[in-house]
Amino acid sequence: MQETFGLAVAEAMAYGLPAIVSDWNGYRDLVKHGENGFLVPSVLPPTVEDLRLCDCVTSMFEEDSLAQSTTIDIPALTQSMERLAVDLERRAQMGKAAKQFVESHLTWRVVVNRYEELWNESCAMAGTKDLRSAKSSQLLNLSLEKCFGHYANAKRSQEQKCFITEEGRGWLKRPGRFYLLDRLCAPPCPQNFANMLREISDRPGISVAKIVKCFSNGSEPEIIAGAHWTIARLFKYGLVTDKELSPQE
Q1: How confident is the model at residue 61 (pLDDT cuts 50, 70, 90)?
Q2: Which residues are registered as beta bridge partners of 44?
Q3: In the predicted structure, residue 134 carries a pLDDT above the cut 60
Q4: Judging by DSSP bridges, how do beta strands 154-155 and 42-44 pair with one another?
Q5: Has this prediction a pTM greater than 0.85?
Q6: Where do the domains of the chain lie?
Q7: Which CATH number fits domain 1-156: 3.30.160, 3.40.50, 3.80.10, 1.20.950?
Q8: Are 160 and 207 in contact (CB under 8 A)?
Q9: Backbone angle region of 24, left / alpha / beta, with phi > 0 → left and psi within -120 to 50 → alpha
Q10: Which tens digit of pLDDT belongs to each residue from 217-245?
Q11: pLDDT tens-digit profile of 159-175?
């Protein structure tokens, strides 16, 4: 879902397959929405500005936390898959466009020429400019939002409404599943997911801000960030949505 390029996507396109990928930085360079595939909206958690690049260097926890709490629009993903499944003509046209894109942009001849251009440009810069920066020591203190905030489509709003899905109701009947959502580098707390999901079920339309407040009590930043991470995981796995669903849905 989150790559800076996406080799598997390029390989699929080379075989004439339209790609359905998250609307994420690297994938946008390959997939042109509606032409050779579909881009599915991606959303960062509200607390991304609190994460620092230096924390990723000393520990993978912050980076993993950001990756695990980045979500995609599951209804949009479903719709894109259905469109390609039922429209054979469009699927063939988009697959042809995907192959043409690879042949014109990603062959070795094209890529090697672009590398040579980059090397020549870099050598020219190195010979004429002092590339050292007084701000280089501040690099590791940059927030992950500063570095990667533009990779996704948007950041989840604190006022976004939350509704439980039918999938979420099914998970509440089988609470053992919540172990799958936990962090690998922390003690398991599956009850946090179950309790938050029940609260959303009991209070349909509750905002992200209110549900986070319920489970953090305005306490330490780490606990608030943990509550945001928990709700992001519920969105990520399709247990919660921002749209009120009809009984049929």
Answers
A1: low
A2: 155
A3: no
A4: parallel
A5: no
A6: 1-156, 157-244
A7: 3.40.50
A8: yes
A9: beta
A10: 767 777 888 888 889 889 988 899 988 76
A11: 999 999 999 999 999 98
